[in-house]
Amino acid sequence: MKLIRNALQTPDGTIIESKNRHDYVTHKDALTGKTYVVDGGLDYVRRSVHADQIDMCLYDNEPHKVQSEVLTWGTYGKDGKQPLQYKTIAEMDTAHLEAVVEMSNVSLILHECMSNELKLRKETSNTSLYVDENVYMKIKKMSPTGSKGEL
């Protein structure tokens, strides 16, 4: 099994997550005063060992829906000049997914999930997901009679 989420929850409810190999994330808990640590991204699990922390790691044996809502891709926007923003695979628009799948430096787990997401979207093409300034709308395609579906 491959790791798809490296995270833990602290007693005060804070979830800390390591997204990259050397992404060392710490949090000082407001309730206990203890410091909690997560490191390793999707390459390995390294963390603090406190009995009161909740493991939130997920693996690739989860259903596709879970994987697509957990796995993220960092983007600097269409022009490459925006601040780094992480989007789940489920949030990415189809054109963006297609472009990323064509890249050679994408990890196998991300590539597989993105490819499965594209396949799922093609199979359910009677409703398409369009992105317009980060607003998602479901738009029904034209019916066989030519009338537009309801928005």
Molecular structure report:
The chain has three helices and twelve strands. With 151 residues, it is of the alpha+beta class. The chain has two domains: 3-59, no CATH class; 64-125, no CATH class. Strands 3-2-7 form a three-stranded antiparallel beta sheet, with no helix packed on it. The chain has a three-stranded antiparallel beta sheet with strand order 4-5-6, with no helix packed on it. A two-stranded antiparallel ribbon has the order 1-8. Helix 2 packs across helix 3.
Give the helices and strands, then pairings.
Elements: E1 3-5, E2 7-9, E3 15-17, E4 25-28, E5 35-39, E6 46-47, E7 54-55, E8 58-59, H1 64-70, E9 72-75, E10 85-88, H2 94-101, H3 108-123, E11 127-132, E12 135-140
Antiparallel strand pairs: 1-8, 2-3, 2-7, 4-5, 5-6, 9-10, 11-12
Helix pairs in contact: 2-3
Strand content: 25-35%
User: Strand sequence of the main sheet, in spatial order?
Assistant: 3-2-7
* DSSP E strands, number: 12
What does the largest sheet look like?
3 strands, antiparallel
Stretches with pLDDT under 50, minimum 5 residues: 126-151
Q: Which value, in Å, is the CA radius of gyration?
A: 19 Å
Question: pLDDT average, as an integer?
Answer: 84
What is the end-to-end distance? 41 Å
User: What count of helical segments does DSSP give?
Assistant: 3
**Gross geometry:** elongated
| Succession of helices and strands | EEEEEEEEHEEHHEE
* Total individual domains: 2
